[in-house]
Amino acid sequence: MRTKPVSRTTVASRFRDAVDEFATVSPARFAIGIFTALIFILTLVLSLPIAHAEGQQTSAADALFTAVSVICVTGLSVVDMATHWSLFGNVAILVGLQVGGIGVLTLASIMGLVVSRRLGLRTRLMAASDSNPSRIHHGPVSESQAIRLGEIGGLLATVALSALVIEVGVAIAIFPSLLVAGFDTWTAAWQSFYYAASAFTNTGFTPNAEGLELFTADPWMLTVLAIAVFLGSVGFPVIFALTRGWRTPRRWPVHVKLTLFTTIALIILGALAIALLEWSNPQTLGSDPPGSRPLTAGFMSVMTRSGGFATIDLAQANGSTLLVMDMLMFVGGGSASTAGGIKVTTLAVLFLAAFAEARGDEDMQVFDRRIPTDVLRLAVSVVLWGATIVAAASIFLLQLTKAPLDFVLFDVISAFATCGLSTGLTETLPDAGKYVLSATMWAGRVGTVTLAAALAATQRRQLFRRAEERPIVG
């Protein structure tokens, strides 16, 4: 008796149902799985001889490191990004930048919306997980959200349109600067889009061997790139809220106000610190005319949001400056943005908690709103997990390379915060060091909240409370 062959439709539907069930049961693991799969796919693509400028095969360590740096929108490199890759390789890298910058689940939701012309509940939940990592935990999210579930459709449209409009606008704005720098029309055209995508996604890759050295005296080029990095680092929920109500700042959600206030404050304080510490250093700011030094200091401060572009040789910077930039990079940019780090709102919540404790207040309050204590617990968890990852990677690389602590710590934090700034240590790492930094970039981009949720087998609820006892703290 002949058995009926299983139809393709049945197999496809079963596979789709299995994926849907996995995404529903463990959205954190689903996100990490998709993210990691994209890295390995790009690794295979970059390993092909067609991706190499000279038709050779890129080593597994270099291909993996580049793929992780691209999908994680980090910007660190172990090869010369301007000369190593062919046109095919550069196109693959640009596609990877867009996927990594927008977010895997957000991009999947946009594609699903385009294909089906509707946004189902599961698709909304997937996109919501990208816009707020707190949603990856089972159960309702208690605090008021900058993006509510019913507004996810508008957020997806904002993500797609803002990425397109900002990158095209930046490319058009910097095109004349590339022509003035001596590039022909075609080279200036494609490099302007490369710079625009690299700036908005906070990656920091440069398409020419000289990098930004050609534009250190071009305030227009540096200002436009800094604005693009800033817009990418504040996050899509902030852009979404501003497009809806930029005329009514009083009605902005607390998340938007905290993100903008903390980001601007860190940029100003960082610029002042860099200028003060490097003003007389002839290897960095000291070689520039006094009138252009504030611009360079401000540009480098913006780049610590996760931008990755550099107009000074960081290997020649003072140790005090590197430490200041370490702290700025570790904080990073806004939540649900193209930037990395522990996020500016995490830092803001910790300061609000310390301020409330100093005043003797029971609640954290800001902008006439009360912040619940579970947000503080999440902020503390993010900082501790992040510090643990940075410490473990730094210890390993210190033992492996015997390099100075300030150089190792700088590059490790840059990898964790997906920033891309480097003292030059990354390019000299052996394969074992490349794998360690790749894992650090992966953990930093996935996010400590998502990673912790994925490692947890289940979310359990206790039906009882134990007796309370207070340890001595401080």
What can you tell me about this protein's structure?
The radius of gyration is 23 Å and the shape is globular. By secondary structure, the chain is an all-alpha fold. The protein has helices at residues 8-25, 27-47, 60-71, 87-102, 104-116, 121-131, 152-180, 185-200, 219-234, 236-245, 254-278, 293-303, 319-331, 344-359, 373-401, 405-416, 431-446, 448-455, and strands at 364-366, 369-371. The protein has 18 helices and two strands. It has one domain. It has a two-stranded antiparallel ribbon with strand order 1-2. A hairpin with a 2-residue loop joins strand 1 and strand 2.
Q: Termini separation (Å)?
A: 78 Å
Number of helices: 18
Which sequence of SSEs, written as H and E, runs from N to C? HHHHHHHHHHHHHHEEHHHH
Characterize the overall form: globular
Strand order of the largest sheet: 1-2
Subcellular location: Cell membrane
GO molecular function, one term: monoatomic cation transmembrane transporter activity
Organism: Homoserinimonas hongtaonis
Transmembrane segments: 30-51, 63-85, 91-115, 152-175, 220-242, 254-277, 327-355, 375-398, 435-457
